[in-house]
Batch of 2 targets.
Target 1
Amino acid sequence: MTESASPALALTIAGSEATGGAGAQADLKTFQELGVFGIANLTCIVSFDPNNNWGHRFVPVDAQVIADQLEATTAAYGPRSGAPTVLDTVKIGMLGSPATISTVQTALAAGGFTNVVLDPVLICKGQEPGHALDTDAALKAQILPLATFVTPNHFEAESLSGMTIRTVEDLEAAARKIHEISGAAVLAKGGVRLDGPDAVDIFFDGETLEVLSAPKVGEVAVSGAGCSLAAAVTAELAKGATALEAARTAKAFVTEGIKNRVASGAPFTALWQGGAGAN
Ligand code: PXL
């Protein structure tokens, strides 16, 4: 038996989406597909409600239980763990409450992570609006400044930049603004939300601006596309790619996953992380 080299490691701090399309499940499948050992620390459990327009039923994980998961992960793989391969790359997905955000902020500040990829999941359908506003404000104040790479979708890019985004030029301006605010590399996603035949995303890291474009596959957003894009960026960074290389690989990975999407009894399809390998 030959010994294979130890894989790169990546942690996702994210919610469970019960049907497996989005959230931690999408992240772990993406990590595996890209050859990275995935670790998930859960922040909440989301169960769509088929009897209520597939709205989100959201249950937070207790802050102490989140802290426990992060403690276990850091002790096993963190900089002081003595592990031969150190965990230096983390993805942040849905946090969902101000208490969770404070817990994660503390862990990030202590964790010594080189790469902090933030998918700034802002509003979850079905959350109480007052609570969601508090959560968004806390995410912007406490987590965004710690991010090294941020992947806002159209709505999140408008919210973070304070701009209205209708065109690719608007999306570029928003990406520049979000970089200015956060200091992070930005991959702002137009996806199917901007008019035109192509799904256009903008990468900007303060130096390089690159338009990443692929023909749209349908006109409807696919569940798990945002999570999988950010997870693919995370996996590539964990393996040592530059931010721009990671963005390019992630865009190609998601495009193939959308082409090979999975239908169900729900009124949306889910990205298939095995799609890139299927071709
Ligand atoms: O796609 C955003 C998202 C992230 N994380 C969880 C989710 C969703 C959307 O449903 O449920 C847990």
Target 2
Amino acid sequence: MSDCIFCKIAAGEISSKLVYEDDRVIAFEDINPQLPVHVLVIPKDHYDHIGDDVPEDLMGHLITVAAKVAAIKGVDKTGYRLITNIGEDGRQTVIHLHLHVLGGAKMPLRMGPAD
Ligand code: AMP
Ligand code: ZN
């Protein structure tokens, strides 16, 4: 998609702090980190979110890469969260499928609705 910021990052048209790259996937530091470790894992091809007919092997690869990223960032033993926001209620702001790898601190217990 021509006006998609993550497509532009995947194409190298917008710079990012690269953490991992292969032929199908790129991982880079979130520009506004919410925790000491906050990396985004995205497919190079554009899908809006996980409900956008993403091939299962690509979805599996994204999750495998997320685990690899956690190891690269040194949080694989201490633990981390893998989050993908979908749509308005999920507060997705960038409409290009991405997994957040979040770690480096204890997460809040609560995962319910906003206050
Ligand atoms: P979401 O709310 O799940 O759509 O998350 C989008 C994430 O993308 C946010 O955490 C933003 O901080 C991050 N983000 C937006 N633009 C960039 C960028 N140019 N480089 C890195 N991360 C970005
Ligand atoms: Zn895109």
